Structure formats: C-alpha cells, structure tokens
C-alpha cells in the first residue's frame, strides 16, 4: 500500500509540474503579445506603452515569475521529496509584491494598506529567519 501511495504522489507531482510548465509557457507568450501590441499600437497622445498597458505588462510579468518559481519548487520537491519553506515564502513574497504594484492607491482603504504592509513584513521576517537558520546550520557542519 505504501508503494502505491508513493507512486500516486509522484504521478500527481509529475502531472502538476507538466501543467505548471504549460501555464508558464502560455503566460510568457501572453506577456510577449501584450508587450508587442502595446509597442506597435501606442495610445494616441500618451507615452509609448501607456500606463494601463504598463500595469498589465507588470502584472503578466509577475504572473510568469510566480509560475516559474512554483515550477522550480515542484521540481525540487520531485527531486528531493521535501518542500523548501524558503522557496514557498519567496513565491508568497513575489505574489504579494505583484499585488502591491497593481494596487490603485487612490481607492485603497488605509487599513487594507496596513494589512498588506504587515503581510509583507511577516513574510520577509519568516524568509530572513529561515535563511539565517540555514546559514547557521551550514556553519555548524
């Protein structure tokens, strides 16, 4: 029964890794398309890309980056059979950073902004502590 569970887990991980690879490729193509259209068809009387297109491009860029980081996390899990908290926190930090970049600061409530700042601080603190712990473990060996 244990072999079946291990085989089932590996199969699901391989399937998810393939799906994540497809998502990263499609997101990259979409990013390239939006960037190309923004450069070829600039908005009249505005900058070359335009502020709306720029936010869309940054959002797509971070989507690709998040997907790539998740893809790398899954590859490491498949290779070492361990989830690395450091990578998970890095993906979370990138996702929250994406949210901050795309925020409309004219409409956001102050309490919501404080919550996002607290979230960033918490994730960063956790990432720092894990990195420090890993550094101390490496020095002891």
Structural class: mainly alpha
Shape: extended
What does the largest sheet look like? none
Whole-number radius of gyration? 20 Å
Number of structural units classed as domains: 1
- Helix content class: over 70%
Element order: H for helix, E for strand? HHHH
- Proportion in β-strands: under 5%
Number of helices: 4
Low-confidence stretches: none
Tally of strands: 0
Distance between the termini: 37 Å
Mean pLDDT value: 81
Chart the SSEs and their pairings.
Elements lengths: L1 H39 L10 H30 L4 H18 L7 H31 L1
Helix pairs in contact: 1-2, 2-3, 3-4
Structure description:
With 141 residues, the protein is an all-alpha fold. The protein has one domain. The protein has 4 helices and no strands. α1 runs antiparallel to α2. The mean pLDDT is 81.
């Amino acid at each position: 029964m244990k072999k079946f569970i291990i085989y089932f887990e590996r199969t699901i991980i391989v399937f998810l890794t393939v799906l994540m690879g497809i998502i990263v490729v499609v997101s990259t193509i979409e990013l390239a398309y939006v960037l190309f259209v923004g450069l070829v068809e600039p908005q009249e009387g505005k900058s070359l890309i335009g502020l709306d297109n720029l936010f869309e491009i940054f959002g797509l860029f971070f989507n690709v980056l998040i997907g790539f980081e998740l893809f790398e996390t899954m590859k490491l899990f498949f290779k070492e059979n361990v989830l690395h908290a450091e990578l998970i926190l890095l993906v979370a930090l990138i996702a929250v950073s994406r949210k901050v970049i795309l925020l409309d600061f004219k409409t956001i409530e102050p309490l919501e902004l404080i919550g996002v700042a607290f979230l960033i601080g918490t994730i960063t603190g956790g990432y720092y502590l894990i990195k420090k712990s890993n550094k101390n473990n490496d020095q002891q060996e």
